[in-house]
Write a structure and sequence with these properties.
Elements (H helix, E strand, L loop, with lengths): L1 H17 L9 E2 L16 E2 L8 E6 L9 H12 L3 E6 L1 H7 L7 E2 L6 H7 L4 E2 L4 E4 L2 E4 L4 H14 L1 H10 L16 H5 L4 H12 L7 H8 L3 H12 L3 H19 L4 H7 L5 H12 L3 H8 L2
Length: about 300
Amino acid sequence: MLTLVSALETLQNANLNAAAQVFSWSFHCPGPQPLSSLGVASFPCAPLEDIRNPREVIIVGGPDVTVLNVNKLNVWLNRHARNGVRLSGLTTGAFVLGYAGLIGDAEVTMHWQFRDAFRETFADVDLSPRPYVATGTRCSSSGGVSAIDLFLTFLVDYRGQEFAESVSESMNYVTMQQVQQVASAEASTRTRIKNGPTVAALEIMEANLEFPVTPPQIAAEVGVSTRQLERLFGKHLGQSPKRHYMHLRLRRAYFLLTQTKMPVIEVAIACGFQSPGHFSKCFRNEFALTPTELLKSHRV
């Protein structure tokens, strides 16, 4: 919901600054009325067929990316893509572009929680860590207020840099000059940990979930002893490096199971487990149910 509101607020302020209805918008969907991330109806939507010659198509994706592959929508998007319409995906909207076969060589971005699922589904796509990507006719944002940054770049295209800056100022939005800052929720940001070796160790773990490395290897990489790494993790995270590493791998498994249609065995391998039995046991210890039980409850 925040993503959509951020985008609309930018357009509304643009109209106020221009003292005219420069931008207008409407809401459309390929099927039943969509739900917001809060589980309640968001905005009344008209059928896709009601759109006539749009200049921009903005796809706002929700948390359940498994429902975004809709043939009717894919066909509709391809028709407008052939006409040169710019297509943008917000939060998980890049999944829709991927399912429609419309990313090609373009770079896209999305919310950090869904990046693993996206990589597993679209392994050949260039996934950017930036908060938004605005190049050519395929654009995307990672969700939340990064939609403001993306839409401010649209305002530059339509009305110029000075106008976009005036809109940014009217919104008290001061991060327009930080558009290249990485917003993939790096380890130091998400955990609020400032200790350098601990943050570096976390980043190594997160970059090696499919092929785990050992605590001694991590310690050597960040320049501390294995015992010192144990003490740092105990101090800042309240658990051992091995236990936290397992938590990260299982969290990724949970996301893949609920956000993709990957079989359990493929999820296990993608998270560094060679034995399905060991994966199931560790998963149950973490979440109090097996991967199969999670799938049954989630996909009913």
